[in-house]
Write a structure and sequence with these properties.
Elements (H helix, E strand, L loop, with lengths): L4 E7 L13 H20 L2 E12 L8 E11 L3 E11 L7 E13 L16 H27 L4
Antiparallel strand pairs: 1-3, 2-5, 3-4, 4-5
This protein binds coenzyme A.
Length: 158
């Protein structure tokens, strides 16, 4: 697999269930965080911290016993930040076509042993899909930063 992509595959377990009998949203967010951490660390060869998770969408429920694929791919890099598109798919392991259940953008920052930001290799999209995703990721980053500013101003933190 390419250096900018990580894929986790596993079965949704009975311990992942919520009160409604489906997989808990928090468990799905943990899968997203873990796969995207692995993707950021693989790309930067550094320890990385989560900066922000944006546009997380719960499209369909995930069922216990389904085969899960969590694909995380770098779609944009800044100086120290890596912006990752994550898509979660679920299928019956006996053979149906996977359905997209979740997607989001999540941003990580590479840090050194003292926690200071470290420059990361630049991602240059080649495939058309990656080029399009980079544009959306830039938009998501700008939007998230604007929201950060709005929160800080409205709460008087600035
Ligand atoms: C992550 C952290 C180090 C960022 O510190 P900061 O001083 O606010 O960072 P900056 O404003 O300089 O931004 C750092 C990078 O993140 C990007 N960024 C900032 N806010 C962002 C947002 N809302 N969404 C996406 N990217 C964002 C910046 O563009 C910058 O990227 P660049 O280095 O490529 O230019 C700090 O907020 C922190 O320690 N947070 C806790 C992290 C954590 O505990 N994560 C969970 C466990 S791993």
């Amino acid at each position: 697999m390419e250096n900018h992509i990580v894929e986790f595959r596993f079965l949704a377990e009975p311990t992942d269930v919520n009160f409604g009998g489906k997989v808990h949203g928090g468990i799905v967010m943990k899968w997203i965080d873990q796969a995207s951490y692995a993707c950021a660390a693989q790309w930067s060869k550094r320890y990385c911290v989560t900066v922000s998770a944006n546009a997380i969408r719960f499209i369909r429920p995930v069922l216990v016993g389904q085969l899960i694929s969590v694909e995380a791919r770098i779609v944009h890099t800044g100086k120290s930040s890596m912006h990752i598109y994550v898509v979660v798919r679920a299928s019956d392991p006996r053979g149906d076509k996977p359905s997209v259940t979740n997607r989001c953008f999540i941003s990580f920052m590479a840090v050194d042993e003292a926690g200071f930001p470290v420059k990361v290799p630049t991602f240059e999209p080649v495939a058309d899909e990656d080029k399009k995703l980079e544009e959306v990721a830039k938009h998501a980053k700008d939007f998230a930063k604007q929201l950060d500013d709005d929160f800080e101003q409205s709460l008087g933190w600035k």
